[in-house]
Amino acid sequence: MCTGKCARFVGLSLITLSLVCIVANVLLLVPNGKTTWTNIDNLSVEVWLMSGIFGGGLLVLCPGIAAVRAGGKGCCGAGCCGNRCRMLRSVFCSALGLLGAIYCLSASGTGLRKGPICLKDNAWGYHFKDTEGSYLLNSTEWDAMCQQPPHAILWHVTLFSLMVAASCLEVVLCGVQVVNAAIGVLCGDCRKKGTPQ
């Protein structure tokens, strides 16, 4: 696969994954789909860090767009400079996206391990913080573990797991694009003149 086609495939994948992270983080702000519990005391710090919106979202969306553009016709046309300018830009954007994806992965993993803030025994707090994530294995008791918000653990675990999975893929794809774009800068785009873009 030539560097241009690879860049386009990676870019489209990164755009999709960044949108997944943004939507998941926005949904974490409204537990159980309601704004009743959307305040600083009822949501975990990891939700307020907005790692899905900024880290795995916007910081990955930019390299995704840059990679798609790098896979298109270059500033001098196909076959001339081989799209080296856009490939070089894609190297730097992908490196920045890699940092954003790592931020999202670390914040989401921490949020998953600590568990949600919820009401238990008439007290709001991180009731699963000291379990080191073992609460994840007891899914049959999740509704009994938290009284409010309803289905808090399921909501929290599902969305943070989605962000962990998406950011893991983003880390891999941004790394692939850094290497792919660096090859594109050094060797040019393998597409010939007249090849459809």
UniProtKB/TrEMBL annotation:
Keywords on record: Membrane, Transmembrane, Transmembrane helix
The answer on whether this UniProt entry bears the keyword Transmembrane reads yes
Topology term for the membrane: Multi-pass membrane protein
For this protein, the parts annotated as crossing the membrane are 7-28, 48-70, 91-112, 159-187
Q: Give GO cellular component annotations, separated by semicolons.
A: membrane
| Family recorded in the similarity comment | Belongs to the L6 tetraspanin family.
**Protein name (record):** Transmembrane 4 L six family member 5
